[in-house]
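Bumping my old thread because nobody answered last time. Still need a sequence for this structure:
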């Protein structure tokens, strides 16, 4: 078992921050989920040890305990977002590292996000797993409220329940994790962290300002945070890959190879090693196809001409803006990204109303972009509703092909929908203009198409 050498850095407000620095090469700042930090004890937990050794110790690994936890000063006066950002700064300056990757879990994503935005010349990449960017929203979850009822009245019960809910009720390693919880932080500091910091902190509006290439991984089986959080975070970061993982973090034995391969894509392979090729990460699952599903396609009008005129680099920057706007709209309106085609998206919705509202939000966002930029993004959108076939996290069938063909009939800035979509949302306040019957490529019978009027 590795025994990290513990050293200390001092923050501007005089707080001593415990850190360890091991290995050589490109540096990764590893920030486990606040407030449960302990840079010594986490090496005694099989789950943590496996992740640290097999994934993060790929060069120089720097860890630290945030203020109020682990081996750092406890019961400190300031536990604001700015104070936690200063913890990162203090350790980075103390170890003298000029450029590094930040790997942050859960609530640690909050100070990591702010630090990365402020220091783009220093932070080269971001890796977030099971991120919690919105404290008030997290605190309002029913499961969290139940936990904090225990925290208020029974610290022993809270620590035991948290350890077993996280590590597994029947996991023989749960007592080790319970010890880790108890020794990482006091009852008073946990209460202060959640009720004074988390309840008041939301960095969601800042995510779009992250310029570093980013990887987000989200466990589908974790009770907290909900899987939708990872999708939302990934949709707001311009240059981001999302990796949805089955199970929970304790299923590390099967998950580590895929995450390690994803970090290879993000950071480059470990120097001097032949890396094993692992399957690509799984995409978010589309909406279930057991009933009616509304399919939405987007397409950048004249994408080939744009690339020739602007060049590959500038065109790619423009397409990333298309990706950011589309993913933000999907996250806000309950859409599931099925796949991205470089200059377009395929998405699915269980609600035709939400699909149309999402399409309108997209076109309005692209219009706002065009007003503020010399480089225009003219997006055409097509929608259809049907019962597609779900296979290997993709959707197939006539309903999908029809939606794609309808999108191909639109002009930049237009939203076209089939008659079945229009009928499903009758009486919901949408304004349609009849575009008549269109003969779509590959279909014998014409399809009646309507334009959704979004500008009025």
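Sorry it took so long. Here it is:
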């Amino acid at each position: 078992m590795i025994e990290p050498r513990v050293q200390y850095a001092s923050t501007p407000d005089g707080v001593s921050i415990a850190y360890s620095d091991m290995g050589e090469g490109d540096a990764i700042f590893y920030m486990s989920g606040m407030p449960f930090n302990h840079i010594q004890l986490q090496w005694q937990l099989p789950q943590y040890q496996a992740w640290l050794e097999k994934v993060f110790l790929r060069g120089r690994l720097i860890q630290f305990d945030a203020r109020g936890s682990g081996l750092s000063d406890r019961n400190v006066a300031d536990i604001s977002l700015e104070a936690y950002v200063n913890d990162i700064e203090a350790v980075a300056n103390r170890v003298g590292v000029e450029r590094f990757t930040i790997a942050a879990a859960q609530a640690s994503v909050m100070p990591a996000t702010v630090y990365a935005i402020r220091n783009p010349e220093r932070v080269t990449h971001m890796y977030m797993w099971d991120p919690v960017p919105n404290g008030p929203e997290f605190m309002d979850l029913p499961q969290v409220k139940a936990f904090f009822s225990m925290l208020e009245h029974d610290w022993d019960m809270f620590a035991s329940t948290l350890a077993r809910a996280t590590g597994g009720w029947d996991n023989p390693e749960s007592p080790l994790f319970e010890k880790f919880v108890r020794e990482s932080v006091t009852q008073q500091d946990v209460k202060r962290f959640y009720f004074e910091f988390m309840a008041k902190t939301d960095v969601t509006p800042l995510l779009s300002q992250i310029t570093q290439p980013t990887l987000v991984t989200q466990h589908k089986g974790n009770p907290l945070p909900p899987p939708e959080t990872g999708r939302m975070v990934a949709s707001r970061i311009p240059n981001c890959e999302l990796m949805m993982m089955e199970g929970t973090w304790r299923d590390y034995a099967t998950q580590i190879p895929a995450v390690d391969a994803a970090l290879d894509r993000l950071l480059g392979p470990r120097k001097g090693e032949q890396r094993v090729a692992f399957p690509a990460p799984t995409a978010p699952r589309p909406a279930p196809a057991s009933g009616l599903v509304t399919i939405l396609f987007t397409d950048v009008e004249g994408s080939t001409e744009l690339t020739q005129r602007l060049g590959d680099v500038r065109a790619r920057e423009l397409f990333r803006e298309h990706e950011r706007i589309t993913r933000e709209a999907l996250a806000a309106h309950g859409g599931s990204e099925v796949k991205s085609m470089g200059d377009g998206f395929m998405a699915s919705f269980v609600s035709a109303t939400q699909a149309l509202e999402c399409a309108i939000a997209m076109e309005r966002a692209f219009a706002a972009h065009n007003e503020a930029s010399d480089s225009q993004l003219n997006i055409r959108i097509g929608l259809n509703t049907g019962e597609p076939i779900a296979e290997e996290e993709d959707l197939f069938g006539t309903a999908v092909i029809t939606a794609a063909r309808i999108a191909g009939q639109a002009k930049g800035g237009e939203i076209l929908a089939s008659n079945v979509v229009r009928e499903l949302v009758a009486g919901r306040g949408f304004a349609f203009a009849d575009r008549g019957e269109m003969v779509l490529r590959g279909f014998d019978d014409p399809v009646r198409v309507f334009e959704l009027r979004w500008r009025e």
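Residues 48 and 305 are 50 Å apart (CA to CA). Let me know if any region looks off to you.
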